[in-house]
Amino acid sequence: MGYLLLPCNLCHIQTRRCLLLVGVVAFTYLIFQSLLLPYGDALRSLLPEDAIHKYDHYNIQFGPNSPKLATVRNPLTVLDLANVSTTPIGKIDKGFQRDNLLNSKGEYVKEEEIPREVDFGSESGNNVDANGNLESDGTKNRANDSILPVDGETSFGFPLKQQVVKPSDTNTITLENELEDFGQMDLDFGELEEFKNSSLQKLEDTDMPFNSSTFMLQTSTSTVNTIHSHQLLSNLSSSASETNSTSIGKRKKMKSELPPKTVTTLEEMNRILFRHRRSSRAMRPRRSSLRDQEIFSAKSLIVQASAVNDPELYAPLFRNVSMFKRSYELMERTLKIYVYRDGKKPIFHQPILKGLYASEGWFMKLMEGNKRFVVKDPRKAHLFYMPFSSRMLEYTLYVRNSHNRTNLRQFLKEYAENIAAKYPYWNRTGGADHFLAGCHDWAPYETRHHMEHCIKALCNADVTVGFKIGRDVSLPETYVRSARNPLRDLGGKPASQRHILAFYAGNMHGYVRPILLKYWKDKNPDMKIFGPMPPGVASKMNYIQHMKSSKYCICPKGYEVNSPRVVEAIFYECVPVIISDNFVPPFFEVLDWEAFSVIVAEKDIPNLQDILLSIPKDRYLEMQLRVRKVQKHFLWHAKPLKYDLFHMTLHSIWYNRVFQIKLR
């Protein structure tokens, strides 16, 4: 009997060894395949063909004709490198351009000659869109007004890796870089931002280590590949299935057409400002310099400023007029700026002086031509200015209808890397003593991460998209109608002759304006609330006359939180009524906006008339007087004047740096 059991035991031992060997081989094969294939494909290669349909439970469908995006320079993304083009950015082939920036002689055309969807050169308050409608905000260039550069030398001696769009069944994206772009795409998803937030929250609730830079989602008609576990796949699939139930035939709402989940009131912004002042979140320089010591010394002098009486300053407009006055004097006496000469036109050193994005152009022009603050020796500089135009970056490099802005951000990333490699100043502070001015809606996205420590003067001052109160500067968005005379049509009727309670006219950009018209269009003769005004010169002048004749000018947000109507209202001496949650008003760190404006929460639009009528007449007259007093702080001049818009912008950059700097 014992002889019979011996062979059986040997068989069991051999069987276990065989199973162990098969397991080792399978595991080795899986690891090898994972190095060559996306994670999901490695698993699929082990499944029989009849079982593949079960794996398709994790699919996220983008539709049968989704484009394939081959993203360059992201090792976490599965790439089709054979289809990636390396496109230099210094020169632009005139034969390929839709809107040429060069004339027949090879010279750059003037800014006002550049064709756009919006008539930036209109002589009155409104822009003309493609349908002939008038809009004082203008059409915000929603992915339809740019050209693709081709071969040539770069501005800095390095090539730009372009984003390539081609027809395919797959669509590879990195969630961190691209998911925010989906709000502009007509996909089979519903509210993709909600999907993103819910998926990230589910991931954070797990025990897995998480790094946002490695959270990658690959979508196709058959697979979903992730870097993490099956639990993440299940979370993403359930989120996608919930949002994918909407009708394919309907146009999905863009992200900018949906109400924000975070609402920051003026009181909350004040708390954030004071908290940041106390914590001083700036990165400490690796080694302090004499220039750092000079800025650091200015802080105590500003905080201890004694009371002043300056006839040029109207005290009720400011948080603390004495601190502002002392800080401004120290800026004039101390501040020195180095302007980088790196970079070529049209993205660099070519300011746009008309239209919606004129603020960044006027600041660039006046900064580069300034002799009081600018120094040629960077060793003498307290701050460093990067003179690029976010508008011209979009105009030059954005691939039409691609719904992808990665190459724009990559361009600025390589620009910053070039500066860091060429000069010692960036690396000393991590860019904290560098600043930029950008008025295009996309500027926050384009400067994210690689310019994260820089001081950013942005028109799109939205706390939900990375604007840092106490470090960044809210740049006023100004619609300039004439580069030669930016003060054309300045002023308005006296308060006694303003018989219109409130006025608004414009296109239905975003989600706030349709709500405004729903409640107040044609509801009250004292509330002149319109949609797009009919085209024509008479209507343009009528728009201006309405603002000059109204007590309150309604300034609702459009696609983004900022609107040129805020400065327009001040320009025409009309009390601005700002309806834009999360918008940080211009020069927030020094001006008291409650002194000369009305800020209404988006949820209170149904009560708009009651809110305005509840303001006593004496209070209105006081605010209207203050609007006239604050007006000079929002005006551009060919030759800058004390306390004007150029100097106010520069002061806020200086002021935030003073309160931000930390020394060892």
Automatic annotation (TrEMBL):
Instruction: Tell me where it resides.
Output: Golgi apparatus membrane
Question: Which Pfam family is one of those matched by this entry?
Answer: Exostosin_GT47
As for membrane topology, the entry says: Single-pass type II membrane protein
The Exostosin GT47 domain extends over 332-613
One MF term in the entry's GO annotations: glycosyltransferase activity
Q: Where is the composition biased (Polar residues)?
A: 123-136
Name the UniProt record assigns to this protein:
Exostosin GT47 domain-containing protein
- Protein species of origin: Cucumis sativus
Upper classification of the organism? Eukaryota, Viridiplantae, Streptophyta, Embryophyta, Tracheophyta
